[in-house]
Design a protein that fits this description.
Layout: H1 9-26, H2 35-44, H3 48-60, H4 67-95, E1 102-103, E2 105-106, H5 115-136, H6 139-151, H7 155-162, H8 182-194, H9 203-222, H10 228-231, H11 237-257, H12 263-271, H13 273-286, H14 299-321, H15 328-331
Antiparallel strand pairs: 1-2
Helix pairs in contact: 1-3, 1-11, 1-12, 1-13, 3-5, 3-8, 4-5, 6-8, 9-11, 13-14
């Protein structure tokens, strides 16, 4: 009988925080009272998805299972729930009279968050291929890989500034297949292997990265006139640095939370996070419109309250469904 993996509390805290950030970013129905406030709220939550990718990479390597056992597990925990939820959102959109299509964002706005599963499924397919290399490679080679990957984070900005076509005839295309979410995945395993030997997770480094990220974000907006979408690109330098910083900060904070009364709740929230992620857009679609908004309440506070309500409802639903026999086909 396979032993259950021992839980690592700081990963649970990071996962719970990531979930909060993602729901925060999807809670965008508040009328903001300033352009700056909207950007502060938006960028605060943008580390959520990268942190999830880092945790996935941390747990994916080293791969100690047979090829068949590994893929059976992923089909059960990821692919099956994905199919169930795509069908559910398709049915909802048909009932609402919306067109059902798979082009760009998955289906329509209500199910757009499922793009994440496309990416994670692709990353999981790569795990058995790169696992032998990552197990054997030295920290120096890892460092080189990560530096090159972070350098590719300037691609979105360069493409915008140079107004250059992004295709195989363009010099930026040289590292295109090296660019993207794989770096977060590898970074997670890097922290697992070399976390105690690297300064990347030091609080001083985290503070420096956050300052640089803020300055770069300001430069993107006010100097290069970038759009919000481009500035907040998960694959761009500002979000890469911000996400690494938050991983380091949360790892340190976890020491104190683990010995508090919040310990068991954080762990439970982490365990149910994938299910909450799949479900939470239903709350956005059907519960948020029914909640009265008070103009006298600060908008950031309103957002916070809506996020807490969403996570609470989603958490209760996931916990109840998890008691049923086939819950793993629904929530993984």
């Amino acid at each position: 009988v396979q032993m259950e993996r021992k839980r690592i509390f700081y990963l649970d805290l990071i996962r719970a925080f990531s979930l909060f950030c993602i729901v925060w970013c999807h809670t965008n129905n508040v009328a903001f009272d300033s352009y700056l406030l909207e950007k502060v709220k938006w960028f605060f939550g943008k580390c959520g998805v990268p942190l999830f990718f880092m945790i996935s990479g941390y747990l994916a390597f080293p791969l100690n299972k047979s090829f068949s056992e590994y893929f059976k597990g992923k089909i059960r925990r990821v692919v099956a729930p994905f199919v169930v939820w795509v069908l559910l959102y398709a049915i909802i959109e048909l009932v609402q009279g919306k067109p059902v299509f798979v082009n760009g964002d998955i289906l329509n706005e209500g199910s757009a968050h499922l793009w994440f599963i496309y990416v994670i499924m692709g990353l999981y397919l790569v795990v058995p291929i790169i696992n032998p290399f990552l197990r054997a490679v030295s920290q120096k080679v890892f460092n080189l890989y990560l530096v090159l990957w972070i350098c590719t984070g300037v691609f979105p900005l360069l493409q915008h500034v140079l107004n250059s076509p992004f295709n195989e005839h363009n010099w930026m295309y040289t590292l295109y297949y090296f660019y993207g979410y794989t770096g977060y995945f590898v970074l997670g395993y890097y922290f697992k292997r070399f976390g105690e030997q690297t300064r990347l997770l030091d609080l001083k480094t985290s503070a420096f990265f956050i300052i640089v990220s803020i300055l770069l974000t300001g430069a993107y907006f006010f100097i290069f006139k970038c759009t919000t979408v481009l500035t907040s690109d998960y694959k761009g330098v500002p979000i890469i640095l911000y996400s690494i910083a938050m991983f380091g900060i949360l790892k340190k904070v976890a020491i104190y939370v683990e010995h508090s009364r919040w310990n068991s709740f954080v762990t439970s929230l982490s365990i149910n996070s994938f299910g909450i992620y799949l479900f939470h857009m239903l709350v956005v679609m059907f519960v948020y419109p029914a909640i009265p908004q008070f103009s006298v309440m600060p908008n950031l506070l309103t957002t916070m309250i809506l996020v807490v309500i969403n996570i609470a409802i989603s958490y209760v639903v996931v916990c109840l469904v998890s008691k049923t026999r086939y819950s793993h086909y629904i929530f993984g």
